[in-house]
Amino acid sequence: MKAILTAAALAATALPALAFDPANMSEDEKAAFGTAVRDYLMANPDVLVESINVLEQRRVADESKNDKLLVENNKEAIFEDGHSWIGGNPQGDVTLVEFIDYRCGYCKQINPAVEKLIREDGNIRWIIKEFPILTEESQLAARFAVAIQQEAGAEAYKQVHDALMESRGPVNLETLGKLAVKVGADDKAVLNRMNTEEVAAVIRKNHQLAEQMRIMGTPTFIIEGEMLRGVPQDGLKPFVDRVRAAAKG
Predict the structure, then answer these.
(1) Which of 41, 49, 166, 234 is at 20 to 30 A from 201, Cα to Cα?
(2) Is the pLDDT of residue 69 over 70?
(3) pTM, to two decimals
């Protein structure tokens, strides 16, 4: 915009003031105006960079506003779905929701930082949404984690979650059965439950929620009213601090 206005000013020195209306310009006037704009931008490329930065800031602001509306419109399914594992401090003043895929390298990469934040803060309610989207192993791992929670409870689920996040090996029925035994669960019961409608319904609801939220990748985080698509460069703590500050007014 700055570039266009400045170029317009240059062109206006050679044209009558009332003639600077693109719809009423002659072909010669349009050519002169175009030349002036081009010459100005070639001489001042920083203006283009500035304009691009402004457009990007507006785009990010618009996306943030839209994401806040999506969170508000789906808050019950996000924060109180009745089937997702809840950890950290269940009575915490900030709720952090994480959409994960156990075969997602970025999920594995950021997991230690998430664990550290939850542990050191002590006042964050942490919700995990199983959202397998990458491979067949993703599906197996997610169904297994949900089946463990339904069969053996929240503590066993967290142990399985940690093991799957740390694992770099294959995910198959054999390795999952061994993991079930390791956390004290009945491996046959868990493996059988993996194929039930009760487990499928949880994952289906998570996928439906993700579709409504326009979530297409993992990890995706929701911290109260803010949604973070991907791994933020500065970590999650600045966002937690920001939502706390906003809550205090």
Answers:
(1) 166
(2) yes
(3) 0.75
